[in-house]
Amino acid sequence: MKRVSRGGLRLALLIAVPLAVLPQTIESPQIRRVVGLNYPRVARKIGIQGEVRLIARVLEDGSVAEVRVTEDKVFLTEPAKESLSRWIFAGCTGSQKHCEVEVTFTFKLTNEICKTQECPSEFRIDVPGSVTIEAKRFPAVIN
Question: Residue 63 sits in which domain range?
C-alpha cells in the first residue's frame, strides 16, 4: 500500500470534486419594474451623501423576498431598502427557486441651492446594479 502525504491527499481530493459541486456564476435577473425614490429630506437638510449597498433575494416570479444591507449610511439606507423591495425582476434563470442581485444606491448633493420647499430629485439607473439619486442642497439654516 502506497502512503500519501497530507498535501498530496488534499490535492487529490480537490481534483476529484465534481464540477457540479463548485459554485457557478449566475447572471443577475433582468429588471422589469423600478420604484424610484426622492432624496431623503432629513439627509438633504443636514448634507448627508454616500453609498448604500444592498443585496435583494429575488424569487422565481421576480418579486423581492428580502433585502440585506452590505454597506450602510444613516438616513439613506431605509429609503433605498424600501425602494428595492418593491422592484420587480424577470425572475431567476434555470431551475433556481431564488437568486440574488446586488444594487448600489449612490446619493449625491449638487452645489446648487434649492430655492423652493420641494426640489425634485434626479433618479438614474445604470443597469445592472447602480442607482444614483441626485438633488440640490437645501439652504443653510441660520438661527
Answer: 26-137
Nearest Cα to Cα of residue 76 among 101, 105, 118: 105
The H or E element spanning position 83 is helix 77-85
> Distance between CA atoms of 6 and 45, rounded to whole angstroms?
62
Cα distance between residue 143 and residue 138, in whole Å = 15
Q: Residue 30 is part of a domain; what is its CATH number?
A: 3.30.2420.10
67 vs 105: CA distance, rounded Å? 13
Residue 8 near residue 66 (C-beta atoms within 8 A) = no
Q: In 3-state terms, what secondary structure has residue 117?
A: coil
Alpha-carbon distance of 84 to 100, in angstroms, equals 12
8-33 pLDDT per residue, tens: 433 333 333 333 333 334 467 889 99
